[in-house]
Amino acid sequence: MMWYVLGGIILLYVLIMIPVQYRNIAATKEELKKTKKTHNEMYGDMSFEEQQMQYNLQGNLLNLPSTLIATLIYKLRHPHK
């Protein structure tokens, strides 16, 4: 019973994080397009706080499923970009 509750909480977390991850991916791509910088240059110009926020949002293992789903949705909505 406890495993079902834990699994339900994790599933709910992943579902809630998909739109957050999608907005982050879209904003990052838009910033790259607008500034015409490389990915590394953009992250190099970020403040320490912004870098940590990006790392925690994208680098957390619990966020991996929602990041993958959001990336897939972004690529389906924005082909060849």
Question: How would you explain this protein's 3D organization?
Answer:
6% of the residues are buried. The chain has one domain. It has 81 residues and is mostly helical. Helices cover 83% and strands 0% of the residues. The protein has helices at residues 2-35, 39-45, 48-59, 64-77. The longest helix has 34 residues, at 2-35. The model has no long low-confidence stretch (mean pLDDT 90). The chain is flat and about 50 Å long.
Give the strand content.
under 5%
Number of helical elements: 4
Q: Write down the overall geometry.
A: flat
Average pLDDT value?
90
The radius of gyration computed from the alpha-carbon positions, rounded to a whole number of angstroms, is 15 Å
Structural class: mainly alpha
How many beta-strand segments? 0
Query: Spans with pLDDT under 50 lasting ≥5 residues?
Result: none
Element order: H for helix, E for strand: HHHH
| Assembly state | single chain
